[in-house]
Amino acid sequence: MFDQAPKLSATEEARRQIEICNACRYCEGYCAVFPSAFSQRAFSDGDITQLASLCHNCRGCYYACQYTEPHEFALNLPQALAEVRVESWERFAWPGAFARIFQQSGAALSAALVIGIAALFWALTALAPESGEGFYAYLSHSAMVAIFLPAFLLPLAAIGIGLRRYWTEVGGARIRWPHLKEALIDGAKLKNLSGGAAEGCNFEKGDRYSQGRRHAHQAVFWGFMLCFASTSSGTVLHYVFDMQAPYGLFSLPKLLGVPGGILLVLGAGLLIRLKLKADAKLGAPRVWGGEMAFVALLGLTGLSGLVLYAATGTALVAPLLALHLGTVLTFFLTTPYSKMVHGFYRMASLVRDAQRKEA
Amino acid sequence: MSQLDQTHWDLVIVGGGNAALCAAIEAAEAGMRPLILEAAPKPYRGGNSRHTRNFRCMHHGPLSVLTGTYDEEEYFDDLLRVTKGETDEHLARLAIRTSEDCLPWMEAHGVAFQPSLSGTLSLSRTNAFFLGGGKALVNAYYNTAEDLGVTVAYEAEVTQIHVQDDRFEGVTARIGGEDMRIEGKGLILASGGFQADLDWLARAWGPSAKNFLIRGTPYNRGVPLKQMLDKGADSVGDPTQCHAVAIDGRAAKFDGGIVTRLDCVPFSVVVNRDGDRFYDEGEDVWPKRYAIWGRLVAAQPDQVAYAIIDAKSLELFMPSVYPPEKADTLEGLAQKLGLPGNKLRETVDAFNAACQPGAFHPTELDGLATDGLEPPKTNWARPITEPPFYGYSLRPGVTFTYLGLKVDDTARVSGPHGRFANIWAAGEIMAGSILGQGYLAGFGMTIGTVFGRIAGQEAARHV
User: Is A166 exposed, middle or buried (0-12, 13-18, 19+ CB in 10 A)?
Assistant: First the structure.
């Protein structure tokens, strides 16, 4: 019945598949996608976007499915939802063209990185301060703020625009604390990568379950959060307590930043290894390169920070500072257009799902 | 693969579904080197087990995902009710009693369970659902078997079983287009029934069986079963019968599985090709009636029937995998379904006229019955009046056949001179001993697991 069908759009293809799932329901216990889908009989485009955003690509449903190819139904729900997700991020991004470039092309992201680092080398040369301590001997605090404040806030604004577009499309309601709380807990635990009653997901070992991806992702996520907290604590020390960098090993920025950096590097390395082993056809194959480059960029952010710290007091500080700050700059500026944005939409979908369950 | 015929295997297991895997795992854990010969290619491995979803399990108090208590007597009563007594009580009670130990064994060998699926809450006490369904269970067992050193050959179709006196010596199997003789010290047959051999089905049931759909695997062609029967093995189960349920008439010939079910009948008027009603659509809730509807439809001309509903009933049942035909008039719907329009109109008008006022409760027997209609509709009888009208075609979908091999409580197959020395059977191929008639949800997996494990243990003890 389906084999002569014309080529469907990503949303239409996902709808075709999820309607078959809705007549089967064997996968109900894997993740939030299924109870959410099975509460409906018909699926609007916005419903499909919401289901796609909820999917964490654990792949349990694919390996359990009796209707995968060569069966005529040819189900591959992880891929179908990944395609919808990627398309939706391109659609919601502002400006959308950037997302189409950076999501898909690892080369583009790498080029952005080179430009980012070069920009920092230029800044270190052109804006070299007269005096200063630690890193500020190479680039003054005010110059850093002038570069990184907009590089942080502008992407956030762009993401805000994207999230608004998402919320309208999926028909989100007014957000209240219980929705947010449930989404934060599910997100922090990566509940939807837990496999339900199984032990983890089906990623790098085919139909065998593994916690590898969940643990690697946790390392990256919490590593990133620690690094972010480190920077934030530095800002507070600087402005509130008038304590200037450089900070010692037992200061808050270092106590947060060093373990954070280590977690980030280990987690990113592991994610790359797992991704190399996993079947690319169960994700969105066209963005594989862009995703890989993004994970590498995240890992490099952590690694360059750690190396920079290790090189304190040597002649390598200046080039390493340019390398690290250039990496961070590129990371921030491409956030709304790289795989990084998945975290924001994923959280939004969890909030929306909490609203559905409450209704 | 080239070494398959160079090895003298401890155990040759024919079949690659639940029973075969349970046998292989038990035997390998006892130190045997088993070979699994699976007729299907790898993506379709697992026989009908890949279409299953739960395991009916006796238990005292909550066990894993199961709630409450389900004791031996209640379980056996349920079995008696569906089989109308057509069961071997000794083997049935053995299966029931052993099921309680099986669930933790299944979990220890990689099977994950999930709470009862939405729409199946009535089974949350009696049936443990596999997370992801039967294919996930099959995958888990193949992984466990692989870790235990079990060898698996796919697309390995057994064509002959070689028996000398009462002793198994080897099989001939076609693997990769090449016939090879594979020898072993013992044989476990777990190759299912014969429902995918439509010629056999037609010889047994009658020519109309050619119009039946086969819900499960196309690889259960019954070749090993026939080989054993030709060698004088004792048979059980009615050779002419199969278990058939009413499913979506548009499903593929094979392997449609669970999604081809249609739950609309209790809210419908069901007519045959000629536009006539032929049975009480509202006799009982659908889970208790879908099986008899397989036979009812099989008895209609061309083995097809049509369920007609109107707009007010569309959302009362699980969504179907194929969208229904839809029209604003009954005549228009009849045309789309290929039914005589005047006749359908006449049948529905007569039905509507016989409907009585009263409260409609879709989830329980509401007693809203027709008056003066033959055959009556005894529940959920609401006039079909509100357009658009929807229609689904129904055909018999065969799940399994009853004919099988007679085994004792050690799963040993019996033949003309008593028990075969080294042949055991498990799963659908011997289920007719216990399920002589009807079906009890999740019991096929219980029989397969219990007797698969017994066969594996016994074979390890005796070869």
Answer: buried
Cβ separation B132–A29 shorter than 8 A: yes
Say if B318 is an interface residue toward chain A (CB within 8 Å). yes
Structure confidence by residue, pLDDT tens digits, A2-42: 455 567 899 999 999 999 999 999 999 999 999 999 999 99
CATH number (domain holding residue B418): 3.50.50.60
- Give the span between the Cα atoms of A118 and A323, in whole angstroms: 8
Residues of A with CB under 8 A from a CB of B: 1, 19-20, 22-30, 35, 38, 41, 60-61, 63-73, 195-199, 207-208
Dihedral of alpha carbons B75, B80, B83, B85, sign: positive
Identify the CATH number of the domain in which residue B327 sits.
3.90.700.10
Question: The tokens 């006196």 sit on which residue?
Answer: B165
Same-domain status, B457 and B416: yes
The pLDDT value given to residue B289? 86
- Domain boundary (B358, B376, B397) is at B397
| Ranges of chain B with pLDDT below 70 | 1-2
ipTM: 0.94
For chain A, first and last CA: distance in Å?
36
Q: What residue numbers bound the domain in which B274 lies?
A: 246-397
Task: Calculate how close chain A gets to B393, using CA atoms only, in Å.
Answer: 15
Nearest CA in chain B to A207: B139
Please indicate, yes or no, if residue B231 is contained in any of the structural domains: no
Count of structural domains, chain B:
2
A-B C-beta contacts closer than 8 Å:
96
- Nearest CA-CA distance, residue A20 and chain B, Å: 5
Q: B348, B374, B397 — which closes off a domain? A: B397
Q: Which ranges in B321-409 belong to alpha helices (H)? A: 330-337, 341-354
* B335 touches A: beta carbon within 8 Å: no
Q: Which residue of B44, B131, B257 is in closest CB contact with A197?
A: B131
Are residues B139 and A24, on separate chains, in Cβ contact within 8 Å? Answer: no
DSSP B172: E
Same domain, B434 and B302: no
Of B170, B205, B199, the closest CA to residue B12 belongs to B170
Residue with tokens 């570069």: A147
**Residues A203-259 pLDDT 10s:** 999 999 999 999 999 999 999 999 999 999 998 998 889 888 788 889 999 999 999
pLDDT by residue (tens digit) across B52-73? 999 999 999 999 999 999 999 9
> Does residue B140 lie in a domain region?
yes
Residue position matching structure tokens 């008056």: B371
Q: Which residue from B130, B132, B259 is facing A61, i.e. has the nearest CB?
A: B132
Question: Do B190 and B285 belong together in one domain?
Answer: no
The per-residue pLDDT for A1 is 45
